[in-house]
UniProtKB/TrEMBL annotation:
Name the UniProt record assigns to this protein: Uncharacterized protein
Length: 121
């Protein structure tokens, strides 16, 4: 796997880190996510059941108190997913959080935007 390094002014770096944290990404994962969205890379061919299983594993491993959005559970692949796959995963996560309200809550919900979730237990 190749790497690309980027240099940022201090204020730019702080903005990237802040936004990444708000969305549940590491700064490097957020950077890749943004670049791949910009490029429009839609090459994912992984079955939805495998992606859901991967999502659940990520939720189990997540530290308590962490705030996240659905794309943070697939940081290296999200940009390559079709809109349909993204919607399926977002709906799956929403249903999972609703069913497991003892472990997760909706931290922020604004109609027409991405829901932010938080692991509470």
């Amino acid at each position: 796997m190749g790497r690309i390094y980027s240099n940022y002014e201090e204020h730019e770096l702080e903005s990237v880190k802040k936004r990444a944290e708000e969305l549940g990404f590491s700064a490097s994962s957020f950077q890749k996510y943004c670049v791949m969205l910009y490029l429009g890379d839609r090459t994912n061919t992984v079955p939805i059941a495998d992606l859901q299983e991967e999502m659940l594993k990520g939720l189990e491993e997540m530290e308590i108190g962490k705030t996240f959005i659905v794309s943070a559970l697939h940081p290296d692949k999200w940009a390559s997913f079709s809109r349909s796959t993204k919607m399926q995963l977002a709906k799956y996560l929403a249903a999972y959080v609703d069913k497991h309200s003892d472990k997760f809550i909706v931290a922020e919900k604004v109609k027409g935007t991405i829901n932010k979730y938080k692991k509470v237990m």
